[in-house]
Protein 1
Amino acid sequence: MIAIIDYGVGNIFSLYSSFKYIGAEAVLTSDPEEIRAADKIILPGVGAFGDAAEKLRATGLADVVLEQAAAGKPILGICLGMQLLFEKSYEYGAHDGLGLIKGRVVTMDGVVPEDYKIPHIGWNGLHFPENREKSPLFKYIREGECVYFVHSYFGAECADSVIAAVEYGAELTAAVSSGNVYGVQFHPEKSGQVGMKILKAFCEL
Amino acid sequence: MITKRIIPCLDVRSGRVVKGVNFEGLTDVSSPVELGRYYSENGADELVFYDITASFEERQLFTDILREVASTIFIPLTVGGGINTLEDFDRVLKCGADKVSVNSGAIRSPNLIAEAAKRYGDQCVVLSVDIKRVGGRFHVFAKGGREDTGLDAIEWIKRGEAAGAGEIVVNSIDTDGVKKGFDIEMLEAVNEAVSVPVIASGGAGSIEDFITLFREIPTIDAGLAASIFHFGEVSISDLKAALAADGVNVRL
């Protein structure tokens, strides 16, 4: 059973449908017991970092995620859910994240060339770092296959955790992992068959 | 490198796709669910659904259909048509839409874009603008292109971007339905004026028209069309293969 954490942020309906499509059992939940009982956890998220971090803490679910991460359960953060895994974000002020991935979340303004549009919206190819073994999350994915991105901020100072990058005038973090904790900046649930294969690989971890 | 997006647009009324649709291999060509799935599995990078219902009952039906479409496709879904209030945003987002397209509603309610962007994020708000040349200037038209608002289109779009619109769809009334190509001059003017993604709409009649679009305006992000895809005149896979052969970066 996959627990998709429902803390009032974003379109989690598509995530639920995606797991159904690949034949995995999933539940949308904000119940700590249900999350503890699940085999794997999805931390979704769309919107602003500060609000989302506050909601996650206010509901007490931040502690549940930390406790489950420490217990070794596979966790996948998606989009803003990935950014929440970092130590800090600088989106409209400075906010603390969960600190499960070393690094911080910063704007791509000033990082990507001026003629590149922000947000980075659309389908872009995944590149896997040459100096490390391919992550099991991408075992069904070939170098260069496209996934769907929508974001203006990205994970920085996290070179040790990067398992996939994307080229957008600069090299941006597309996915990270540290032990049992994984994060993807893109939306697998909106990335067609490629996205379904990534979710399937997560289910098989 | 980011790819150029190809986006089919479906007009839905009374739970059915209107405008002729002519595909082989589909059991029900007028079903938005079947057609959505077909496009999703055959290379479309996004889907746009336009709600052109006339009554409350039809709107309920649209909502049901939208929910079904959203649960069967795994590419981004934009919904437009009749979006006037935050409640309208809420209604379609709850059905599984990823982005909401506003047009006349933004003209009627000047704060709609800002309020929606604040609540749902810039990435969720698409400003769609119907533009026609009037006396050498680009004017914004409302009510499905029937009413000249007198607004300068470039100024209007810049205001929309400042308020939080995350993408702009430019519908050229001058080239729409003519099938002789996109309105390069108009699109260039808009693309120059804003820094968010711009989607070209209106006028596509052939594969060559898309090649011209991306060649003339290399920084334009996407091309949207309806009937040429629905009639099967142009298949998305053929279109993308031709674009790739011409050096345009597309998702194959």
Protein 2
Amino acid sequence: MSPVLAPPRPDELDAMFAALADPTRREIVARLSHGDATLTDLAQPFPMSLQAVSQHLGVLERAGLVSRSRAGRQRPCRLETRALDAAVGWIEANTRAWTERFDKLDAHLRTLEHP
Amino acid sequence: MTADQQELLFHRVVGAAPDLVFACLTDPDHLTAFWGPKGTTSPRESIEVDLRAGGVFTTLMVSDHDGSSYRMRAVYDEVDPPRRLAWTDVDTGLHTTVTFEDLGDGRTGVDIRQTHLPPGIRTQEAQAGFLSSLDRFDDHLADIASGRASR
């Protein structure tokens, strides 16, 4: 799953909606919407094993909704807001990407003026 | 209106003359500085520009967080410096046309018009309806819609 700007393919959308159809996984997504968290943090509220929560995370990861940092032993999980954007409104995500790109262009032009 | 008839319009005034803004959008040395939206980078060596109608325009956007990436592969339809630039995304069929308007005061009005929206997004209205009915999700989706949840 590509995190940026790619218009979602129907199969990617299917995977996202299937992933979100489960209440535990929605809880995890809701928790991650407040900030990155480790597997241990995420598992804490659930009456289930770490392994079971890890499996739910795997589903969210494969659906592109959650990513896990490559850095660090804790490998914190992050909600891929762009993927969620793509699921609920690629058009809005696309507009925001152009805005961010032109913000960066403005900054780039300033460095050209004052190197 | 269905998505295939839709066009997306984006307008921005940039504080530089058309020649420079056009160069920024077509020169890999410039593109690498801004092409990747927030949270991503576009490495210089991954950008390919063959600036002529029929030439390739390829960029890679790499997530700063986990290194995952998205390659955009496009072919230029029109190259008319410093007035007009158009390309078609090879994978999705999305057409993008950029026009550069000289505002005469050292600034440029940039208009981006996108047409031939990919079929995948056509069903999203229905799917968004499904999503918003899910418990606890409404607030977060509202945040996303208003841009508050963006990183």
Protein 3
Amino acid sequence: MSRTSASASAPALAGAILLLGPLPARPQTDFSAVEIEPYHVSGNVYMLVGAGRNMAVSVGDDGVLLVDDQFAPLTEKIVAAIRTLSDEPIKYVINTHLHGDHTGGNANLAARGAVIVAHENVRVRMTAADSPEGALPVLTFSGPVTLHFNGEEISVIPAVAPAHTDGDSFVYFRGSNVLHTGDVYVTTSFPGADTANGGKILGHVDVLNQILELSQTAAGFLSGFGNAPGAYPERPVGALGRAHGRTDTLIIPGHGRLSDEVDVLDFRNMLVIIRDRVQVWAERGMTLEEIIAARPALGWQARYGSETGPRTTRRFIEAIHAEVTAEQ
Amino acid sequence: MRSADHRSLVGVAASLAALSVALPARAEVDISGFWQRIRHEWEQPEGGPELGDYSLYPLNEEALSRAHAYDPAIDEVQQQRQCWPHSIGYAMFSLAPMQIRQEPDRIIFRVMANEALRTVWMDGRPHPPEYALHTWYGFSTGEWVDNTLVVTTSHVKEGHVRRNGVPHSDQIKVTEYFTRHGENLLTMVAVFDDPIYLSEPLVRHMSFRYDPNGVMPEYPCEERELVELGGAQLIPHFLPGENPFLEGANVDYFRE
């Protein structure tokens, strides 16, 4: 996994998602209008929804564990939402990646006593971007790590490949059977790779497969982390389990609605089909502009595409084209 | 011409709803029991429709792109798909019988596909927030308007409205009108609104015959051996313009 960080810059910490070329200006978020809503997912775990991003929170006798903390100006609202669930202290904050819309509250919550936990590349890149010391993760990892908290195992699992960034992680609440994916899986747009922070658009295929493997292995999850296909031959299959009344893993995306294995599978298939179109057309000699004009994302553009903002359909296709032609 | 047909069907449904609204609500009608589907002229042949047969479906170019790309092999090579239920976009229109149970706060539909149960809440509860989980049958609420059960469904997972790759999105909204006519006939009109894949509302209908002696057939579904075709990196599909099964099919009928 790449640890190159020299090109990391402050905009990355403002939630920038660099695909290719300079970012267009992001509209300012009016934080005063944002409401943070708790939504019970399963067991100890709630989803905190607000400002278009999703946090996860575990509440119980051991205290509060938070996954991602959005923007700094929202900390008081986030804490107020948590206080509707628990009066216990916020002991851990886990960052799924380095972007500022997921780490912006680090300094505020660290000042309240929370331990900030993240992939080592998150600290490397935040440090390179001159983030304040108080915002940096103080507990980092490069492999799977498990917290025993609120009566269940909470596993923080690095992505198997660079995708959204090179420091992506998932948080799996084993007892509650809930997985927070960070931004490698979203329901609001095409996947986005922050190439300035080591992201790779096609790495999402491997990482979405990892999520699928995790969700399939969830009920039989013991000591492994499910990255190797076929590693758990006796595993129950999620969608089949749902059809027959068994419990499936519920998946909290970085942005968008609560999901399950089937939603992730559809998202993965979409990416693979669009990748195939771009790759075959490039191999046949079509230029990037010819490929874009042929609309390889047609079929999903109305659902995930955008003509404005940081995640446009064009940038998505450009990112795929850059990677498939680099491989040729 | 076909579009006009759809508009007229929407008009019928709207008129039904308007008429119902104009009348005072009555006590609920007993629609419980076992219902056999009555075959219609529009039904797909046994074994499913041909690839490229999308007649009577008001699809936009996004939906056509998905349907043209559909390769049935995807159901063979992806283990996860083998026992998936049909979504609400199709389940109520399969050839399978249906069983209905009425309780004070809900009506439960049992459709044969995977023996899944579909709950329609009758207690006035609101639909969940948009960020809630979407499921195969979605979240349904119902109310009696005159003698018609009007069911509103949201939060549906992406699925299909026809078994040849015609998709519906997870943003589909479905309104169904169930009306019992005498002892033996139950009719259903469903209006599908999908801003992603439909160019106008899709209206479908189905009729059922009461069968007091009906028995729900079993729906065995066993995991089959996963066919290895390169693992999860390979998703069967046809490239645009290269689906050999579409030759001669009337695939551009609704193209905008």
